């Protein structure tokens, strides 16, 4: 079973409508009161049903102009896009909030159903693996939300009424404890071998490493967690299951969609494309940001500098465009079937490099090795003064800055990777275009809670700097 968008949507349309009664466009997920309710536990009897809901949960987020396949709309305020002026409207991110909570709601129904009555058509081993996957997906959804919005209403499989009007935001420490619990459970229960496209144990460990890395920095600022981040990232590295694609020009190609570097992501198919291909190169890359990008093979692999007729973009007044996902564009239909990475091995190497450096007061041999794997590949395995290899002689601060820079170049335009780094390192003001720095506020580090939830729930507080009405 692959978590491909809408793979089982036809079979599960009725099921989804019963398990998620508040999914109407513009409706309040947490507050809408259904006219009637049929328990979802009546419907789950086998693995195929559960897997279908897993697929639909991913479809909420990457389903033809879903939140992540239109990430230009949501990540525009980082420094990589041309138009992010840091004037964040109160409506920004509304669909991200709703879509993640849709997924959490469905996953909670699955978890509750399996806890209460199991699956009559499946063995305990199969059910155990399904529970591990469900807990992983729920933890990941909360991990995304907490970084966007801060403290959250915490809906669990034990929540009796999802539509009650008195749900307050739980402390951020409680949210992170919940995420860690889900990821740890997933590590212990996801099968050793999973099908193509599924998040395996290595993905769960990588996500737990990224969680600890985030907890070590803003907003919790608990540096003792750097060692935990390094520990879990090194477990993924040392298992030897994943590897970098040697040639940077081959990384984003059809042949590597499910290769050893692409650990987990959003998946599209010819029958179920993500969006129109043109939308991926119609947005403009920030010229200021691109001007800082090292001259190396990675730069030419990542970006388009000419149009299909060979015209240089800047000569015709168009900013260069990102081309990571254009390998799967269909010329005849104009549709895109590219996969979007959520976690790949290069990310794990950089998580380890950052965490080990910070945990040990400076770069270790292994931390230097990890970041240099990424740099060497980016330079075409040749020395390059524009992006030199890291060394043990670097101070902790200099090495950390280099790791964050490498994350900036390597993971650019892969969903919210850069935005989350700007938040947790508290460097948003320093990195945005100079002309937009006048618009910066500390409030920009969190997105606004949707007004339709606030209006229906007096106990739901708005984030600082945004109106409640």
Task: State the low-pLDDT regions, or none.
Answer: 1-29, 31-38, 276-281
CATH class of the largest domain: Mainly Alpha
Count of helices?
17
The first-to-last residue Cα distance is 44 Å
Q: Looking at the structure, what is the overall shape?
A: globular
Q: How does the major sheet shape up?
A: 2 strands, antiparallel
Percent of residues in beta strands? under 5%
Tell me what the structure shows.
It contains 17 helices and four strands. It is an all-alpha fold and 469 residues long. The protein folds into two domains: 198 residues, Serine Threonine Protein Phosphatase 5, Tetratricopeptide repeat, CATH 1.25.40; 213 residues, Serine Threonine Protein Phosphatase 5, Tetratricopeptide repeat (Alpha Horseshoe). The protein has a two-stranded antiparallel sheet with strand order 1-4. α4 packs antiparallel against α5, α7 runs antiparallel to α8 and α8 crosses α12. The termini are far apart.
Q: In a nutshell, what does this entry contain?
A:
It contains 17 helices and 4 strands.
